[in-house]
Structure formats: structure tokens, C-alpha cells
Write a structure and sequence with these properties.
The chain is mainly α. It has 10 helices and 6 strands. The strands form 3 sheets. Strands 1-4 form a two-stranded antiparallel ribbon. The N and C termini lie far apart (about 50 Å).
Length: about 270
């Protein structure tokens, strides 16, 4: 099946469903101008899409250029930006939109959890320190002479950076919303594993066995499973943090503390 065929089959149906169900206020406003629309959550989804494109593009181009994965030339349009086909960029957009909208839906169902946040700087430091150590080990392994770790370490070196930023700012907020985070990340991850299995079996894209560990679940390499989990975790965490009132209060407090330091007064950052 063609790459665009895969996207149409697997990603367009859930996206259309989410676009119908999640922004219901928008549809009512467009149809009848009945109520005020809170546009911020949908703007945040668009921002996440833009960040995903900007951050993922050079990394994914490196993967294709170095033969970590490749696509079947007869199953793509032939339009490329750099080394990567236009279909891959479309995938970035669709995945981020689906997971972002899905996270908004999950937060509505589990909204009371967001009210129970206990600020904990030691927790943020501890989790971030562990993730930094994991990131450092991954980067060191990437420069080892064993090519079978290439894809795994490239995923971790690239993917743990945004996770580190998120946990440094709001690991305690994410922990308070762990049910929302788990559901927002795991549901699209499992679904995308099915997409990946189909694409691999149909030959739409291929993962280089020489640059993977060889550990698989069925046809899906461990690295692909990790990639989809990590990317959905980043999107889900980002949506939770940017929509959380606790995050907004913390950001305002940190900004005020930095301003106070510039003026010579002292104010703690929690």
C-alpha cells in the first residue's frame, strides 16, 4: 500500500472523529454563534504541530540519509524535502493533531485530577536527573562501534531532550495527572503500533536490521515501539502542561522571580 494510502486508512478516520467530537463549541459557534469559544486549547495543538515539524525534520532526515530506515520508492509520490518524502511530514502533522486532540478529550473526562497538584522541586530534580543520566548514556552508546544500537540511541538522544524540559518544569504536575497522561499517550501509541505493523508488512517502509537490536514484538522492532511511545508521551505531556492552571501559575511565578532578581530583590522559585 502507498504511504498516503496508509495515512488515509489509519489516521484520517480518527482525526475526523476527533475533529467532530472535541471542538464542539467551535461547531456550535460557527453554526449559530451561540456561545463563546475558548480557542487556546486548539491553538496549542497547532503550536505542537509546528514544533513537531521543526524539531523532527533534521533528525528524521539524518535517519534516512544514514540508512536507518527507508521507504519504497514506488509507494510514495516522489516529492521530498531533503531526504524525507512529503508523506512523512504529513505523518508528523496528523500524529500530533490526533494525539493533541485526544489529550484534550482525556483532560475533559478526567478534569478533577488537574486540581490536585502539590509542588515538589525535589521530585522534579530527581526525575530530571535520572532522565539526564539516561540521555547521557544513550549519547555515549551512539558513538560506540556497535551499529545495532544506532536507531535506539538516536531515538533516546533526540526524544529525551523535550522530555527533560517538560519534567524539569512540571514533573510534579504530570505525576498529579498521571491517569490523563497514561491514557493520552498509550492509546495512540498502541494504535500507531498497528499502523506500523501494517506498513512494515506491506513494505511501505523498512527498518534497517543492521542498525537495530533485533528485539521485536511480532514484526515491530523495539525501536519503533519506543519511538511512537516517546513521541506520544511528549505530545501528551506538552498538552497537559500547557493547558494546566498549575503550569500557568508556576510560569508566572518563575517569570516574576526572574524579574525580581534583575531588580535586586529576592524571590524563591519553587
Amino acid at each position: 500500500m502507498t504511504y498516503f494510502g496508509i495515512l488515509a486508512l489509519f489516521l484520517l478516520p480518527p482525526l475526523f472523529l476527533l475533529l467532530i467530537l472535541v471542538p464542539r463549541q467551535v461547531w456550535r459557534w460557527l453554526a449559530r454563534r451561540e456561545q463563546t469559544v475558548h480557542w487556546e486549547p486548539y491553538l496549542l495543538v497547532l503550536i505542537h504541530i509546528a514544533v513537531a515539524l521543526i524539531y523532527t525534520t533534521p533528525w528524521d532526515n539524518y535517519l534516512v540519509a544514514t540508512g536507518v530506515w527507508w521507504y519504497h520508492p514506488a509507494l510514495v509520490t516522489g516529492i521530498t524535502l531533503g531526504w524525507v518524502p512529503i508523506e512523512e511530514y504529513t505523518f508528523f502533522v496528523l500524529q500530533t493533531a490526533i494525539t493533541g486532540l485526544w489529550t484534550l478529550a482525556v483532560l475533559r473526562w478526567l478534569a478533577p485530577e488537574t486540581l490536585k497538584v502539590r509542588s515538589s522541586r525535589p521530585l522534579r530534580v530527581a526525575i530530571s536527573a535520572f532522565l539526564f543520566l539516561l540521555w547521557l548514556i544513550s549519547c555515549l552508546l551512539f558513538f560506540s562501534i556497535r551499529p545495532e544500537f544506532n536507531y535506539l540511541t538516536l531515538i533516546l538522544c533526540w526524544g529525551l531532550i523535550p522530555v527533560l524540559i517538560q519534567t524539569s518544569f512540571g514533573a510534579d504536575i504530570l505525576l498529579a495527572n498521571w491517569r490523563s497522561l497514561a491514557l493520552s499517550a498509550l492509546a495512540p501509541t498502541i494504535y500507531l503500533w498497528l499502523l506500523d505493523a501494517a506498513a512494515l508488512s506491506w513494505g511501505t517502509w523498512t527498518i534497517n536490521p543492521a542498525q537495530t537490536t533485533g528485539v521485536k514484538l511480532g514484526i515491530i522492532p523495539l525501536e519503533e515501539m519506543l519511538f511512537f511511545f516517546l513521541t506520544n508521551l511528549i505530545i501528551g505531556s506538552g498538552m497537559i502542561l500547557t493547558t494546566s492552571e498549575s503550569s500557568k501559575e508556576r510560569a508566572r511565578a518563575w517569570i516574576e522571580a526572574l524579574r525580581s532578581r534583575r531588580t535586586g530583590t529576592t524571590q524563591s522559585i519553587n
